[in-house]
C-alpha cells in the first residue's frame, strides 16, 4: 500500500527532528535529496483540484504583477505629462512675467541709486570748489596786503 500525504508530512517531521544541529545556531543539516523526494511525492499526491487552485493562484499573481507594472508605467507617463503641462501652464507664464518685472524694477532702482550718487558727488565737489575759491581769494588778499606793506616800508 502506498503512502498518503499525511505519511509524507510525518516523514518530513521525522527528518527534521532527527537532523544534525549546526553548532551554536538554530539551524540543522538535512539530506537535500531526501527532502526534495518527499516534497515531490507530496506534490504528486495532491488532488487535481488543489493543483488547479495552485495554478489559478499563480496565474492570478502573474496578472496582478503585470497590472502593477502597467500601473507604475502609466503613473510615470502621467507624471512626465503633468510636469510638461505645468511648464506650459499659465503659472509658469505668470512666474516668468513676475521675474521680468522684478528684473526691470531692479534695473530702475540701480539707475536711481547711481544718479543719486553722482548728484551727491557733484554737490560735494561744488562745496569743495567754493571753499577753495574763498581760500584762494583770502590768500590773494593777504598777499596783496603783504605787498602793500613791503612797498610802504620801502617808501620811508
Describe the overall structure.
- The chain is an all-alpha fold and 156 residues long.
- The chain is built from four helices and two strands.
- It has helices at 5-17, 32-45, 48-88, 90-154; strands spanning 20-21, 28-29.
- A two-stranded antiparallel ribbon has the order 1-2.
- A hairpin with a 6-residue loop joins strand 1 (20-21) and strand 2 (28-29).
- The longest helix is centred in the C-terminal third of the chain and has 65 residues, at 90-154.
Task: Tag the structure with descriptive keywords.
156 residues; mainly alpha; 2 strands
Distance from N terminus to C terminus (CA atoms, Å) equals 167 Å
Q: What is the multimeric organization of the chains shown? A: single chain
Task: Encode the helix/strand succession as letters.
Answer: HEEHHH
Tell me the overall shape: rod-shaped
Helical fraction: over 70%
Which spans have pLDDT < 50 for at least 5 consecutive residues?
none
How many DSSP-defined strands? 2
Arrangement of strands in the largest sheet: 1-2
Gyration radius, in Å: 52 Å
Q: Average pLDDT value?
A: 93
DSSP strand (E) fraction?
A: under 5%
Total helices: the number is 4
Strand count, sense and closure of the main sheet? 2 strands, antiparallel
Query: Which structural class should the secondary elements be placed in?
Result: mainly alpha
